[in-house]
Amino acid sequence: MSTVPPEPPDTRASGPATGPATKAMDNSHDQPPRDEGTASTTPRSDTVPIMSAADRTAVHAFRPRRTLPSVIVSVLLILFGVVVAIGAFSTLAGRPAYGPLLNWASATPWQNPPLLIGAAIAVLIGLWLIVLALRPGRPSLVPLHTGDQELVMGMRRRSFARSLAQAAEAVSGINRAKVRLGGGSAHVIARTRLHDTRGLAEKVRHAVETQMHVLGPISSYPVRVDLRGE
Amino acid sequence: MIDRKTARGNRLGLLVTGLTLVLLGLFTLIRGLGLLPQHFAPAGEPLVNGPVRQAFGAAGGWLWWVIGILAVILALIALRWLFAQGRGEAVHDMTLATGPGGETRVASRGLADAITADITSHPGVLGARATLVGTCVHPGVRLRVLMEEHAPINEIRAHLGDVAIPHIREALETDHLRTVTRLKFSRKFASRHRVA
């Protein structure tokens, strides 16, 4: 357990807008969507300061655990071990269990095409496992600022997106809104029946950005607004 | 919820397996494509050839013993890896500092219920579930909080940080408590459509 004293409570809740979220807002119009896979420890734009220890802890807490690949690989390894063990001990007992396998191996040269194809597949699978192991992966929850290293908070992605969508729907003139979090940005699709939509997109953007500021995610999600007619 | 040790172990296991596959596959490809010097590793040779048989013959049984035992060890390690996936972090009982008056034992269930009651006391919170994790020296709490759709999230955040968690710290008699909270909005109250 760390002995670093907790950071002073985040004042963004009540005070004026500060911090990375604001900076991201100014650039949001022109920035292309970012690859969200890097949302872990690298700063996401030139203006975002290096993450605090509390934020890093939060991001780490919600990284994928790689459970499913581990289950699959461990089961396959168990089977492999059992098969080899049966082969070895049966041979020792004088009744080798894998006669046909031995015959195949004695007759098959290294340059046999199916063997090489199998080897290539093995290399690809191995590389994929290595990538799975080393890449941080996208957090299943959106880590939120808390300012306290010992309090880690995350919000379900769908809840986060819905909260932003509701902020968009609260803008008068907007009937329905949907927010998709992907590619490092928040893509808002807002539907309206109004004919005169001057300034409406700007209002929606402002509403969504304000709500984003309230929620306080650690990574910034530049807002893209797409106004569509009903 | 699986813990960080398991997550780290998973990545390590995937890394080792991946590396092994890559190395074996690459060796097979290199050998099979004739990229090794052909006078001692010809590509046309069968997988199991004379020298291999000789090695096994000369070694007698012990080579098979080694292979067999290694295979069993591999299977056991993989089994342990598999079981680690199901291992949750929740603890059932936590013994706090042993003082002159004796031990203080905290039943996790009771404490978890108390925490839950504390958190749900806030109007915007529909439900919560608390799980005690870690050890008595390094306790931790895992919280799942279900909020109403229009709940003021900052208030809930403040309620957690300023009220609920200090209470837990007090109950566990510790200053350092790592809490991981998962927030979720409920679908219960569907958003009303605005008529423009």
Automatic annotation (TrEMBL), chain A:
Keywords: Membrane, Transmembrane, Transmembrane helix. Pfam families: DUF6286 (PF19803). Residues 124-228 form the DUF6286 domain. It comes from the Bacteria. The chain crosses the membrane at residues 71-94, 114-134. Residues 1-50 are annotated as: Disordered. Residues 26-37 have a biased composition (Basic and acidic residues). This is DUF6286 domain-containing protein. It comes from Sinosporangium siamense.
